[in-house]
Structures are given as C-alpha cells and as structure tokens.
Amino acid sequence: KAGVTQTPRYLIKTRGQQVTLSCSPISGHRSVSWYQQTPGQGLQFLFEYFSETQRNKGNFPGRFSGRQFSNSRSEMNVSTLELGDSALYLCASSRGQATYNEQFFGPGTRLTVL
Amino acid sequence: AQTVTQSQPEMSVQEAETVTLSCTYDTSESNYYLFWYKQPPSRQMILVIRQEAYKQQNATENRFSVNFQKAAKSFSLKISDSQLGDTAMYFCAFIPMNYGGSQGNLIFGKGTKLSVKP
Questions:
Q1: For each of chain B's 118 residues, which pLDDT tens digit applies?
Q2: CB of B95 less than 8 A from some CB of A
C-alpha cells in the first residue's frame, strides 16, 4: 500500500508570491491534516479535512487555506508569502472520522521563502 | 491553553541500554489520547506508541513502553535495548476529546533529539 505522498518535495519562492502544496493520502483514508514544522515553533496544526469539509483549523492567518477533493487528495495554499512561512509542511492522513486514530505522515514539502 | 512540554531537548544513550524520554502535558479535558511519534533524520514521522487516557494500563510496543501518570499529566517513553535505528527526534503529542465528543487535532511538544551511540 502506497504511503502518503506530497508534492513538490522542495520549493523556493520569494516574498509576496503564492504557493500550492499537494497531498495524496493513503488509499481509503478520508481525513487529511496539515502541519507546519519550524525549528522555533515546532509542529503546529494548520487544518484538517474530512470528506471535503474542513473540520478543524489552527491558529494561522487567513493567508493559509486548504481544500480537499472528492478523491480525498488535499491542497494547501499560502498567499502573499512571508519570510516566516519558510518551513517543512507535513500532511497526514488517517482512516475514518476519528483524528485520534493513527495519523500517517508524508515526507513533507520544504518551503523556502527568500 | 493546551500544551505539551518535553524538558529534554537532547539525549544520548549507548546501544543496548535503556533510556526514558519525559513528557508532561496540560489540558482541562478528562478524555484524550496520547502519542509518541518518531522522526528519523530526513525520514517520515511514524507512530511509536499510543495511549488512551481512560485506560490505566500502560501501552507497550515491543521495546517501547510508556509510563502514564494521569494525575500528574505525565507520559514518559521508555526505550529498552536501544538500537542505532532508534536515533531520531521523538515527539510527544496528544489529542483532546472536547466536551460533547468532538475531537481536536494533534498538539505536539518541541521534541527530544535522541542519539544512540555504538
């Protein structure tokens, strides 16, 4: 069974640009969560989707948005990039509705904002 | 505020020895789930062990076991017979089950970097 995949793996953008990251969950998983990982703040929850609906959202500005498609694939978008958005963005999927089930993480997308 | 504290930023252990990683958390919820995740260098994060707060029995997974002290809000991880492949960043995390049964999402500690030395 293929694991969680994230594309692209690496991105370099400049301030003010926007970026879209993609996540394909494990087949059959309907919940997708996104996390931002930085050395200073650690791992912080961005948002979680289940069956195309955003169920939870973390404490991030409106520049961060996401969506989920009918095949459970998810995208997150960051508009008007800032230097502080440089981070590893992790996607995780889990089976069923319960987020307390094991979450399977992807390799992440390393975003660098110059 | 719901928080997780890992007081040991870095630890090292000799191969075959036992090491314990500390974790404390703060929540006002009475029901929640606790986790230890492992993130090896340049590799994906994987679940090590999971504990349901209403279960008093400590979870074990092969060489990994936890010491769950609910009253103290403590959830330490013990790794027995440490192996070189255990070298990784270890994150303690929990998911609160809010009043009414709705669930939150993973709240992580800052991590403990464990190095296993030959």
A1: 789 999 999 999 999 999 999 999 998 888 899 999 999 988 899 999 999 988 888 999 999 999 999 999 999 999 999 999 999 999 999 998 765 555 678 899 999 999 999 9
A2: yes
Secondary structure (3-state) at A83 = helix
Token pair recorded at residue B30: 């009475």
Q: Which of B33, B42, B45 to mutate to test the interface with A (most CBs of A within 10 A)?
A: B45
Q: Angle at Cα B40 formed by Cα B73 and Cα A78, nearest 5°?
A: 85
Nearest to B77 by CA among B15, B30, B24, B16: B24
CB contact under 8 A, A56 and B105: yes
Instruction: Give the Cα separation of A97 and A50 in Å (integer).
Output: 7
Place of tokens 């993130």: B39
